[in-house]
Amino acid sequence: MRDSFKGLHFGTDYYPEHWPRERWETDASLMKEMGIQVVRLGEFSWHKMEPREGKYDFGWLDEAIALLGRYDIQVILGTPTAAPPAWLVNRHPEILPIDSQGRRRGFGGRHHDCQSNPLYRKYVKNLVTAMAVHFSENPIVKGWQIDNEFGNAHGDLCMCDSCRKSFQEWLQKKYGSVECFNAAWGTAFWSQEYNSFEEVFTPRITVTGENPSAMLDWKCFCSDLIVDFQQIQIDIIRRYCPEHFITHNCMGFADKVNYYDLSKTLDFASHDQYPGGFYGKMPFENNELMAANLDMTRSFKKQPFWIMEQQAGMTGWNIMGRTPAPGQLSAWAEQCVAHGADCVVFFRWRSCTVGTEQYWHGILPHSGRPGRRYAELKEMTKRLSPIMDELSGSMPDSRVGIVFSYRQEYAFSIQPHHPDLNYVNQVLMYYGELYKRSIPVDFVQDTDDFSNYRLVIAPLQYLMTKELADKYFAYAEAGGTLVLTMRTGVKDEHNICMCDRELPGVLSDLCGIEVSDYDCLRDADVRVTWEEDRESGVYYATKWSDIITLKGAEALACYRDEFYAGTPCVTENAYGMGRVFYIGTEPSEKLLEAVMDRAAVSAGIRSIGRKDPGVELSRRKKDGKVWIFALNLTGRPAGYEIGEQQKWKLALGGQKGMLQPFELHIYQGEEGE
Ligand code: GLA
Ligand code: ZN
């Protein structure tokens, strides 16, 4: 077992190539003093490593690594394949990607590469081999990050001839015969039949409309292409550096690559966490989404993960975000640990004076003099270090699984139905309901084993296969509580509408309902009556109404407006030893609360405790030991109460139940307490 990552808990992303050599030693010593144990290097410095074709220069890296090593700091190397150098692009402009409008994108940013191009792959293989051979025996190098944020900036690129050929081969492998392929894409529509796979195009901009089946395959192909591009590099590194760990820095709910697939052959998944967002587009206090990112990353491999880039200052390229308040950066890092991070690496060590990211602030400001951010994070590493080794490898032991499927996400991004309907947001809405109740959650693939979960929430199960339907039947049969929603069982795996039954198709029997009609709520919400609270008038259906006929289920809520007033909107059905809830709309907050109250009770799910808004309660478990985290993510004092609080030993923090702004408490106990 490779365990070269053991014992590493705090790190930083460092770019020695941006600074004069005379500075390096000061940096290393400041890092050491701050509690930094590991540094990521090199992920964009292709030109520095190979300034001319085939002429490798690792001398500067050797020097930087040796210096860090003298300060007892270990190294992760990034393969710099997200930034092919100018000499390569000039020599082979065909490695530049082509966008959907047929334009070749230029040099000058990053990710200006076509990942299918055989010539580009040859250069990648040569460089990665040279790196792996060179660094395999270096005792300071412990692991690798492949490329950087796959899918970032790749937005459905590339549409070049090489990608076209790869797409054709991918389709041929998937469908075998051109007849099956034409049927799967429904090419009879608008005369889109193909006589051979060689006739298929990449989906460049059309005069009008797209084939949803073609677009689904294209998105899956792009994901597979990235996975394959990563695997080439992994194979090389495994061969020369069998003891080193390999990871990749994922981006939460970004969807260009299926992270479950991408993580399969990695030692662990990593994530880049920026609560301050990019260019101020996100709200500043984003705790729930950040928590979801972390739970998602843990779910890629069902194992603890690393943060490879943790916000270390104000974010921004041309436009900037707010500056984190004193205490906020450490609270954000602690949030990662509370959700299963075994190591947090801060991006970046020092604010850069050159290039695109001059205003993406580091631990050190431009001046290089340690300031408040350095002092704060240093205090945090000192405070947490004693507990990090023990925590390492522990997991939250969730009893709730939320199904996240890249295929469903792709299908909804192709046809969102309602202009504001978004698969990820829908999944996050259900997540938020559990988050606010302090109930730990895993995100699961629809191919995962559900038997550990008492409650499975599967929003928008739009594309349905027999296997998946059987799985839901079996889960409820065995006593699970299942929540299904609108737009379930609509299409087959090829994104073609099924027509053999009323919706939700084969799942009708499981839900005890039939959706006889539906309405897209473009301009108004529809009032709903929650049957146990008939008078209140605070429940709404939004974006969509499934008009439901009961076939054995019980109605929990009914519409109050429109021609379908009085018909069911939310239902509950007993199936086998389990219960199946069906929510035929995007429920308003109160409606969702009411349904989830009932589902949680039916599943016997317990919350970790009660807390003020902005406080997070979470837990990790390992070998019979349990840690409970209470973290105040706000700048105000806040309270909380965990079950049987007096019994728990406070391993970190001040006064039980009361948190100062951005304060963390950690309780420790034995399972069963
Ligand atoms: C991403 C990248 C980094 C850097 C930061 C800030 O997360 O991985 O290289 O670009 O964003 O923009
Ligand atoms: Zn291409």
Keywords:
17 helices; globular; 673 residues; 21% strand; nine-stranded parallel beta sheet; binds alpha-D-galactopyranose
Topology record:
Elements: E1 10-13, H1 21-34, E2 38-41, H2 46-49, H3 59-70, E3 74-78, H4 86-91, H5 118-135, E4 141-145, H6 161-175, H7 178-185, H8 212-240, E5 245-247, E6 249-250, H9 259-263, E7 270-273, H10 287-301, E8 305-311, H11 328-338, E9 341-347, H12 372-391, E10 400-403, H13 406-414, H14 423-436, E11 441-444, E12 455-458, H15 466-477, E13 481-485, H16 508-511, E14 513-520, E15 526-530, E16 539-542, E17 544-550, E18 554-559, E19 568-575, E20 578-583, E21 586-587, H17 589-603, E22 609-611, E23 615-622, E24 625-632, E25 638-642, E26 649-652, E27 658-659, E28 664-670
Parallel strand pairs: 1-2, 1-9, 2-3, 3-4, 4-5, 6-7, 7-8, 8-9, 10-11, 10-12, 12-13, 13-20
Antiparallel strand pairs: 14-17, 15-16, 15-18, 16-21, 18-19, 19-20, 22-25, 23-24, 24-28, 25-27, 26-28
Helix pairs in contact: 5-8, 6-7, 8-13, 10-14
Bound molecules: alpha-D-galactopyranose and zinc ion.
